[in-house]
C-alpha cells in the first residue's frame, strides 16, 4: 500500500510535494524557461515544431493546467530550510509538471479515462523523481478520482522513459508507426495504459478491498 490513501499524504509523496500552478511571475518564468523552452522536454513531449516559446505560451500552459485537466500540479522538492510544522514559507522548489488530461473525451467523464503527462526539468532527471510522481498520480487517479484507465504516450526514441513506464506496470497497447520526425529519423508513438485492476494488483489490494 502507498501513503497516498491517507489524507495527510494527499498532495505529497516520499520526497516530493505537489501544488497547483499559479498565475504568478515566478510560475510563468518557470514554465517559459524550464519547461516549454527546454530542448529535451520539447523533443520528448511535444509534436510541435521545435523553437523558442514566448511568455504568452507559458501563461496559456498554466491556464490549461488550472482549468483543463482533471488534475494538474507542479512537482516540487521541499525547500531545504523548511522543517516539519513550519508554515508555507519558504516555498517548495519546482522541478517539473504532472497532469491527467481528459483527452479526446469531451464532456464524457463517465468513461473514467484520462491521459497522463509528465515533464521534469534539467538536473532532476534520472533521480527517481519521475517514477515517484507517476506512482503518486496513479494512486490519486484510482483511489480518489475513481478512474478506470490511465493512458500514456511515449516516443520510441525515449528509451529511459519506456523502461520506466514498463517498470511501473504500464502495459503497451500498440503504436503509431513512424509519426515522429526526430534528428533526421522516423520514430513511433507507443501507447501505454494501466487499468484499475492492474493498479490494484500492483498495490496489493485483496478481493474484499475491491468490493
From TrEMBL:
The keyword Lipid metabolism does not apply. GO terms for molecular function: acyltransferase activity, transferring groups other than amino-acyl groups. InterPro entries: Acyl_CoA_acyltransferase (IPR016181), GNAT_dom (IPR000182). It comes from the Eukaryota. Pfam families: Acetyltransf_3 (PF13302). Keywords: Acyltransferase, Transferase. Residues 16-196 form the N-acetyltransferase domain. This is Acyl-CoA N-acyltransferase. It comes from Aspergillus ellipticus CBS 707.79.
